[in-house]
Amino acid sequence: MTEALRATQAFKCFGTTQALNGAEITLERGQMLLLLGPNGAGKTTLIRAIAGRVRLDRGDIELLGHKIIGPADLARRSLGVVPQDIALYPLLTASENLEVFASFHGLKGAALKDSVGAALNWSDLAERANESIKTFSGGMKRRLNIACGTLHKPEVLLLDEPTVGVDPQSRERIWEMLEKLKQSGTSLVLTTHQ
Question: pTM for the complete prediction?
Fold first, then answer.
């Protein structure tokens, strides 16, 4: 099987606003797919539908060959999601944030500790591991946000505007992180204006 993700004939209205009008995407395993478009084009709505946070009015979503039925579909366990808004606990340290998100994904003991250590190194935040993230720059928070969405080693990762509001150096670092994920076999879908 080469397809990681497929959305076909995706339709979604919010009241009288047509957010998706027959959108279709196919993501091959190990591929990075960028959804490019202006605000209001439906990129985030499609990402949320794949993640189970929005129910399509019509259309189908298949993840790793399994048709997704509802928000709690077991197939979604192989999915990672990084939202556009920073989804971190500001009073916790980088390590503590990673530990919390790792436990959300069912990691425990040595597996949790190993995942947190690897994520700190991968995101280039190991030296700041024990600092409260309220002192972090926007780019550092973005990198940590991405790391939190990948702790369970998802086969497919959805990223909504992962480089929004960061400086060029942070943007470059984020693209390096995503390229490493792709090289490791993770399939990625991300939205962007760039």
Answer: 0.92
